Amino acid sequence: YILTMTTSILPEKYIRYEPPKQGLERKRSCTGDPKQLLHPTDSQGNLCGSGNFLDRPYSYFFDWTQCIKILNLGANILKGRPFVCPTTQVCVQQCPNITTYYKFGNYYNNRICTYDVNATDHDNQQLVETGKCASYIIASKPLFGRCVPSEIESLTNTIIQAPDANGINQTVFDSKGQPLNSTKLEQGVNYLIDLLNLKQVGAFLVEDLTIAWKYILAALAFAAIISFVWIVLMRWLAKPIVWLGILLFIFILGVLTGLAFYEFNQLRIKNDNQIYTGFKFVLDANYYRNLPITWLVIGCILAILLIISILVFLALMKRLRIALAILKEASKAVGYNIFSLFWPLIPFLLQIGIFAYWSVVAICLATAGKPIYRIAYNETIANTTNVQLGDICDPNKWNNSNTSNSACVFWEYGYDPQVDLDSILNGTGYHFKSFIIFVNQHQWIPQIFSAFMLFWLTAFVIGFSQLVLAGIYARYYWERERFGVPCSSLGASLFRALVFHLGTIAFGSLIIAIVKVIRGILEYFEEKVKDKTGNIARCLFCCCQCCLFCLEKFLKFLNRNAYIITAIYGTRFFTSARRAFHLIVSNPLRLLVIDKVCDFLIFLGKLSITAGMGILAFFFFTHRIAQAEKFVPELHYYIVPLLLIVIGTYIITTCFFSVYAMAVDTLFICAIQDIQLHDSNADHQLMMPKGLKKVFQVKDK
To answer: Single GO molecular-function term (predicted)?
Structure first.
């Protein structure tokens, strides 16, 4: 990857400049090739179905039985490669549809050979012995660009036979002259069996989505309308709607609990009162749906959640009064600034753009490099040569006569340490050469930097959105009498954030990104050494992860309040963070408890809408709404559109209610600042609305 960028980072005196016209006309592109992830490769690293092999989209393996020997290699030799087979692989136009052997009369018309074999070469035995042609051809079908034996789903421990030119079944032999055993063939393609099953399930899922996408979009549009109406109505009916949300949440949880136990009872009766009828892991979701134990477990979990929810409401009843007052005032602020409800659409689109760009960069980094070839043994015999399994080799210089039990096969795309950097750098730049070697040998460095930028940019967009909304509601609190046109407040807040506070947002998001990267690195090391460490080390890793998780959550909470302080006073990040931290420390119970109660009530609103849409979709797709029976599509897995509707509804409600949550936090911080100014300055006039004055029990001096 770095080698392709050498001229862009060499010292200026080492760069050989080209004429400006040629430089301007030269075609520029990314170093990586995402096609490597989409197309299979042959033994020489050529991409099947791309470039010169555009008309050869499939990869054919000469002898699948040779793939058995490589499957038990250590991870240090495989170097992350999931599957490498030391047999010749070539790109073909189509997978063969018959099984034959090179001694059969019908072999010539169906043989598969390397690219340098001409149609005039009729000596099949010599071509097979020199490795130019496959000794046998197996009837195959394409799977992810690879030609896989068609009998893979019905292989038994038998010798494979095929009709010769006279139509008589004869035994087929592998490249070593041994009878081709179907069990060995199955072992050779064992790694593809799970992919084959997944492909079938994936085909069903795609088919379901092509049928149900209209219903999914209609449900999501309906969810957006409900969310918008819910927030608009809260301007006048804040308390009733909040109480409605609480009661609706408990009611829906109770309905789900009852429904789960009802399904359990019906299945139990159907299975002669047997609760447990056996269990196995399968990919068919309908299997689990028809088990009584599944609904019993779901019912018990929902019942526990229902009891916990009721107890939490009873314990927080006293705090609900303050929370409801703040929610009522926040409803007025959101209702007055109705344009702010559409603001989350812009950050959401920015997040999608950032993720899409990061995905392209990550793919280019993952596919950057040149074809790498490594040594693989064809047989499990002692190595009598001086070559090591997994060493890098050059297929053009490989001498099979010296290492008859090994082969030089394509391994991956990456960095070749055998490249002569001195010839590229013209004998200059020793330290720069060391840097190139280091980065190429540790290509995780650009990947970590890419992940860091993803974390930083996403945190930046979130912080930017929070600061803009905080500016709207801070202005509403302190300047209600001269607030002006509602839409002008959004424009003014956006202008101030863009012109004056981008540095504040960048620094706050940088801290979050650093913590996320540290967490990611720690998780990576934990995954790498989990099989080599004891309980103490695993406990330490767990404690570190927990501490970093709590630190990240606190920093996000601190940043959110710091952005609100910035929106109020226009101060820099450190000043705002210090003030926000002082607020948290001086008002821990009031800030944390009340803030979390409000967040919980907002969460109940989101959950009520999401659960309601989920229940409605469940009854619709399971043919339980008689009036809509004729509109219900026939699906393989109704759980797929159901999950998409539930997840999509929750994302939509989160976008709408995030505005509401920011209004609550901003007004709450403003109220605390107002009280502190009132206590420290007798001339300060409270800007707090009457409803909040009554709740906070403050009076004008």
So the answer is: transmembrane transporter activity
Distance CA 579, CA 452 (A): 28
Cα–Cα distances (Å) from 78 to 75, 100, 412, 568, in that order, read 5, 33, 10, 57
Pick the closest to residue 88 from 104, 71, 67 (CA basis).
67
> How far is Cα 416 from Cα 695, in angstroms, rounded to an integer?
70
* Amino acid (one-letter) located at 56: R
Neighbour-count burial for 316-348, b at 16+ CB within 10 Å, e otherwise: eeebbebbbbbbbbbbbbbbbbeebbebbeebb
Q: Which of 86, 88, 91 is nearest to 135 (CA)?
A: 88
Nearest to 145 by CA among 58, 65, 54, 66: 58
> Among the residues of 115-237, which ranges form H helices?
124-129, 182-188, 190-233
- The label of the residue with tokens 């004008």 reads 700
- Residues 557 and 580 sit within 8 Å (Cβ to Cβ): no
Q: Which residue in the block uniquely carries the two structure tokens 């949550």?
A: 661
3-state SS assignment for residue 622: coil
Does the pTM surpass 0.70? The reply is no
pLDDT, averaged per 10 consecutive residues of the chain (701 residues), comes to 35 42 47 68 84 89 70 42 68 90 85 89 87 88 80 59 74 75 64 54 68 86 88 77 79 88 84 68 64 85 90 77 79 81 86 87 74 63 55 66 58 63 57 64 79 93 94 84 64 91 94 93 83 81 91 92 92 92 80 73 84 88 79 77 89 87 88 85 81 74 60
